[in-house]
Amino acid sequence: MERMPKWADVILTPLISLVLAFAISALVILAIGESPAEALKVMVQGALGSSYGWGFTLYYTTNFVFTGLAVMVAYHAGLFNIGGEGQAAMGGLGVALVVLALPWPHWALALPAAAMGAALFGALWALVPAWLQARRGSHIVITTIMFNFIAAAALNYMLVNVLRPVGSMDPASARFPEAAHLPKLSEMALGLGVEWGRNTPANVTFFLAIAACLLVWLLIWRTRLGYEIRAFGKSEPAALYAGISPVRITVLAMLVSGALAGLMAVNNVMGEAERLVLNAVEGAGFIGIAVALMGRNHPLGVLLAALLFGFLYQGGGELALWTSIPRELIVVIQALVILFTGALDNMVRMPLERLFAALRRKGA
Amino acid sequence: MDFATLIQILDSAVRLMTPLLLACLAGLYSERAGVFDIGLEGKMLMAAFASASVAYATGSAWLGLLAGIAGAAAMAGLHGVASIGFRGNQLISGVAINFLASGLTVLLGQKIFGLGGRTPSLSGAARFGEITLPFADSLRPVPVIGPIYAELVSGHTVLVYVAFAMVPLTWWVLYRTRFGLRLRAVGENPASVDTAGVSVVRLRFAAVMICGVLCGIAGAYLATGISAGFVKEMTAGRGFIALAALIFAKWRPWGALGATFLFGLLEAVANRFPNLDLGFVTVPSMFMNALPYILTVVILAGFVGRAIPPRAGGEPYVKER
């Protein structure tokens, strides 16, 4: 396993993959007759050039941290959870049910309750695929894909037939009560006397996301369960031999993963929309795959990758606004990042390993 | 429900199942050779866009079909390079392909046509027309058989008949040819195929490319057969329903025919009766739409007949040295 120094494995390989992905994205921009440099300028200015841009970038980042962590935890157990989209959608249902159920006096009470609801619904939505994988041997990738579609249909049904207020045509829930309004980062800044990011959706959930990164790190690398998850993910027979129950680990890892994906709903449903709408997740569940891959399945990496994708998302919106490049450019970049850091990993890794082997021979 | 309505629903089911059937058979070749493919959706989408664009530019649906096949085959080639050549994760590669197609089609469509990702609508020879089979009109007055022949069997585009013909052809290729035997073997135990002196890489690449061609036909049918032009995200999850059908069919060609017919029928019924009233309970259309996925989960769970995937599926083959 000592083929490469650690820094090359952790930093150099993803960096080269990223450069490749962006180089090809630049070619795509050239191919549609636009200037990559100009596009980058618009994106950086729009996403990072003002507190307004940052307010959106951090909002998207918060979403992607949760879905990225969700993919990451499952990945450590050797499970590919592509169901983040459905789990986050179900988390939204949990948030809406909790917030609309009681007359919350203050957001500080509503937030933990809503977070519990989100995590619970997300986790339950991951439980069935997990159990089926562990007990019945059905492939988790396929079942989680199916559960994404089932979640979409279930949510559609709930919004149209159950949660829609009387007299409303919109397939959406009622507005959340004013008291459950989560403070925006801009309002918190104003409380400190700083004018920052007015009218942006970034909210207090951002700190929840940071805390989640820390907790996931603790879970995976500092607890017995985390050790068992990693052992199971590295080698199932070895884990079994060591007395680790595959069923238990599969189910627990997926419960944590689903809960994390569900927690995203605190940000987008409670923090931003303040009501549950159709397709509230908007693909963030899938971006979690790219974020986890790029972040090398480490919470710090996930945070940085989520920030990058937050920047891309906000920048992409600005692109669509100021240039003739459609928003979908971001989807292409996302695809290329997944392709290079995920599927074509060996393309970058194998030459690098050879290079380092050659260097070592020369040094020895 | 009268007989005419029944015929109409069945007719609609045949139209709706065609892209599913083609994509399902496409996935069958790939997965039987041990290469998982969750990128069926992306390949179909790419093909739909390519075929609609070229059909619009040239006015020929057939050239559009070729372009669609080329577009899907390019995506399949990428999947092959990543998952066979570089032994990457097949699932991740499939996810990437879905996103790539989803983004590129809109990006290119906006650049070329400037209609927000749509292509202009197609008419005349740029679409596949409906074929009236011989005697369809003269047989129409015959009770029962007449309408079935004239409405249900006749009056589809050529791609529908191609899709149905692919079922026995696929069966024959898989179970009656040397290529098919090797293809199935490489999905179960690639080492044995390698030992026999047959290239695992070449076989798997062939399977993946066949998958691309079939996805190409499926996409072309969506854009130039069933509808008149490409619309953003027009596959709308059909690639995943095809994947579900493949599991439902237990990776067998005739099963694929049955599974895709069932799923096409569900869609046709959901379209026809948005809220199906069964007397004692009203079934919402959302449930009908979700039913293929629910059924697949049930089948996967092994409660109703077990679906066992090819053994070597998803694992890159590393040749021993």
From TrEMBL, chain A:
<feature type="transmembrane region" description="Helical">
    <location>
        <begin position="329"/>
        <end position="348"/>
    </location>
</feature>
<feature type="transmembrane region" description="Helical">
    <location>
        <begin position="52"/>
        <end position="75"/>
    </location>
</feature>
<feature type="transmembrane region" description="Helical">
    <location>
        <begin position="302"/>
        <end position="323"/>
    </location>
</feature>
<feature type="transmembrane region" description="Helical">
    <location>
        <begin position="202"/>
        <end position="220"/>
    </location>
</feature>
<dbReference type="InterPro" id="IPR001851">
    <property type="entry name" value="ABC_transp_permease"/>
</dbReference>
<keyword id="KW-0472">Membrane</keyword>
<keyword id="KW-1003">Cell membrane</keyword>
<dbReference type="GO" id="GO:0022857">
    <property type="term" value="F:transmembrane transporter activity"/>
</dbReference>
<feature type="transmembrane region" description="Helical">
    <location>
        <begin position="276"/>
        <end position="295"/>
    </location>
</feature>
<feature type="transmembrane region" description="Helical">
    <location>
        <begin position="240"/>
        <end position="264"/>
    </location>
</feature>
<feature type="transmembrane region" description="Helical">
    <location>
        <begin position="140"/>
        <end position="160"/>
    </location>
</feature>
<protein>
    <submittedName>
        <fullName>Nucleoside ABC transporter membrane protein</fullName>
    </submittedName>
</protein>
<feature type="transmembrane region" description="Helical">
    <location>
        <begin position="87"/>
        <end position="104"/>
    </location>
</feature>
<dbReference type="GO" id="GO:0005886">
    <property type="term" value="C:plasma membrane"/>
</dbReference>
<keyword id="KW-0812">Transmembrane</keyword>
<keyword id="KW-1133">Transmembrane helix</keyword>
<dbReference type="Pfam" id="PF02653">
    <property type="entry name" value="BPD_transp_2"/>
</dbReference>
<feature type="transmembrane region" description="Helical">
    <location>
        <begin position="12"/>
        <end position="32"/>
    </location>
</feature>
<feature type="transmembrane region" description="Helical">
    <location>
        <begin position="110"/>
        <end position="128"/>
    </location>
</feature>
TrEMBL record, chain B:
<dbReference type="Pfam" id="PF02653">
    <property type="entry name" value="BPD_transp_2"/>
</dbReference>
<feature type="transmembrane region" description="Helical">
    <location>
        <begin position="158"/>
        <end position="175"/>
    </location>
</feature>
<feature type="transmembrane region" description="Helical">
    <location>
        <begin position="251"/>
        <end position="270"/>
    </location>
</feature>
<protein>
    <submittedName>
        <fullName>Nucleoside ABC transporter membrane protein</fullName>
    </submittedName>
</protein>
<keyword id="KW-0472">Membrane</keyword>
<dbReference type="GO" id="GO:0022857">
    <property type="term" value="F:transmembrane transporter activity"/>
</dbReference>
<dbReference type="InterPro" id="IPR001851">
    <property type="entry name" value="ABC_transp_permease"/>
</dbReference>
<keyword id="KW-1003">Cell membrane</keyword>
<keyword id="KW-1133">Transmembrane helix</keyword>
<feature type="transmembrane region" description="Helical">
    <location>
        <begin position="205"/>
        <end position="231"/>
    </location>
</feature>
<keyword id="KW-0812">Transmembrane</keyword>
<feature type="transmembrane region" description="Helical">
    <location>
        <begin position="290"/>
        <end position="308"/>
    </location>
</feature>
<feature type="transmembrane region" description="Helical">
    <location>
        <begin position="91"/>
        <end position="113"/>
    </location>
</feature>
<feature type="transmembrane region" description="Helical">
    <location>
        <begin position="12"/>
        <end position="30"/>
    </location>
</feature>
<dbReference type="GO" id="GO:0005886">
    <property type="term" value="C:plasma membrane"/>
</dbReference>
<feature type="transmembrane region" description="Helical">
    <location>
        <begin position="65"/>
        <end position="84"/>
    </location>
</feature>
